[in-house]
Specification:
Low-confidence stretches: none
Shape: elongated
Strand content: 5-15%
Radius of gyration: 34 Å
Mean pLDDT: 86
Number of strands: 2
Order of helices and strands: HEEHH
Distance between the termini: 73 Å
Strand order of the largest sheet: 1-2
Structural class: mainly alpha
């Protein structure tokens, strides 16, 4: 409930700011990709300024997301490798527990995942 309220409290003003920005920047601009001829460029596009800015922001978000995703590849690879190791060790643990249960059928103590207390050390008192 509180999450929906916070989301609405952020998104509604943000939407109003974006709409005000779009309405204030409706002028048509020419985007040219010809650095040698400014008078009659080989390729030029005319569009409202707010569309140009929105397209560039979206493009920046996509490029930034791709760069971040590629930089994190080593962490994803390590996580996959460690997950594989955990699965292998779990399977080995289950197999060893099964072998132990078969080797000691008279044992009535169930094997649990809890760790047993370490054995206590018994030291002789020093000779006086």
């Amino acid at each position: 409930m509180i999450r929906k309220f916070i989301t609405a409290a952020i998104l509604i003003p943000l939407t109003l700011v974006i709409l005000a920005f779009a309405l204030a920047n409706r002028e048509i601009v020419t985007v040219s990709f010809d650095p040698f001829d400014a008078a009659s460029p080989a390729f030029a596009v005319k569009m409202p300024l707010f569309i140009l800015i929105f397209v560039l922001v979206i493009l920046g978000v996509v490029i930034g997301g791709m760069a971040s995703w590629m930089r994190q590849s080593k962490w994803r690879r390590a996580a996959r490798r460690l997950d594989s190791d955990v699965r292998d060790l779990h399977a080995e643990n289950v197999a060893l527990r099964r072998r132990l249960a078969e080797a000691e059928p008279s044992s009535a103590v169930p094997i649990t995942h809890a760790r047993a207390a370490p054995p206590s050390l018994r030291l002789r008192p020093p000779a006086a």
